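Meet our chain:
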Amino acid sequence: MYQNNSAYGVDMSRRYMETAPARKRKRNWRKTVLSLILCGALFGSAAAAAFTGTNALLKNGQAAGEKSAASQTQSAAGLSTVSFSSDTSASSQTLDVSDIAEGMMPAMVSITNISVQEVQSYFGMFGRGRTQTQQSQSSGTGIIIGENSSELLIVTNNHVVEDATTLSVCFVDDEVCEASIKGTDPDNDLAVISVKLSSIKSQTAEVIKSAKIGNSDELKVGEQVVAIGNALGYGQSVTTGIVSALNRQIDDTDAVMIQTDAAINPGNSGGALVNMNGEVVGINSAKFSSTDVEGMGYAISITTATPIIEDLMNRTTREKVSDENASYLGIKGEEITASVSSAYGIPQGVYITAVNSDSPLTEVGIPAKSVLTHFDGVRVTSCESLEDRLQYYAAGETVEITFQVLEGNKYTEKTVSVTLAHASVQTARGDQSDFGYGAFGRL
């Protein structure tokens, strides 16, 4: 608008200058230049306000795909948001379930997790009581939330991707791409994974879209919702129901949950719970469903999940390091659960029962009986979660680790920079059972 008005002002001043005396021409030319400067300033202010508004809207639960567009350089092609055959903005009517299903499918992906699990062996003369490893495969769902300059970003549940040795996603057109874990939050059962844009075929890039993010605080009990997910690994399917209850707290997670009677089965985890305006209001989690009851499914509230997702999607994507570059902390630990923490007054995390003499922790003065709570800014809740984090950090890397250190009869928090040792140290020493490959894995 300002550009058109400015152009019009220039044309009018030129016509006037052709007939006016030279003195007036000079004065009017100055006015015109001043008008252009003011118009440019107004246009710049409007543009700045638009960017500020975009960021504010995102924080209030707007499309998370706009996050990467506002805070990072977006790819040249850009990623469009899901659209629907019915326009709810032009009418007070809500969408039909079929409209939601059709519109949301381009924003959904099926996730396949291939991992190596330790299982008990009961065969052979010496098999009983021993363990062996075997490859296992599990399925889940993800929601496309945006992209940055090099990656497509997908939100899912943490339990869908944990322990993965290989992750792959299948898009709406059945194309499959390898994915990497960008960030996880086990306490809230959330994760963000990424797919390199360079690995996505152009025809796939044309059909995939990012989901619209709604506001779960506006939900009402009895409101209709739609659940979409890769149930039992068979591919995307749709169920519908109502919001049964709000603000549910499940013992195994810090997440705020939405209870629904829409069927949520294994494989649905990480999928979308959508309101009748086509907006994602929850992230389905079959982890908290039970075969003992019917009509009780749960989804993580999107309003409480949004700031966590924003943090995860802006972390550095890490790949698992090779065995020759594997890192090592040189500790033996035990998990302090929430119940143990409450009963004994010990902070929740990994309680360090022993520190090896060549552990990098000895150099920074962290003694046994301390509790490791955060590794590189990510909360640690168990030995397994710490071991999983270490798989993405090479020997020689320096990371910040937070501990609760026992001083007298109370714990004091300390954050130190630790340079990770090489896992070959423990192999050469030959005491893996105490400081590495025993019950607590490579620590």
Remarks:
- Residues 1-77, 427-441 have pLDDT under 50 and may be disordered.
- The CA atoms of residues 107 and 211 lie 5 Å apart.
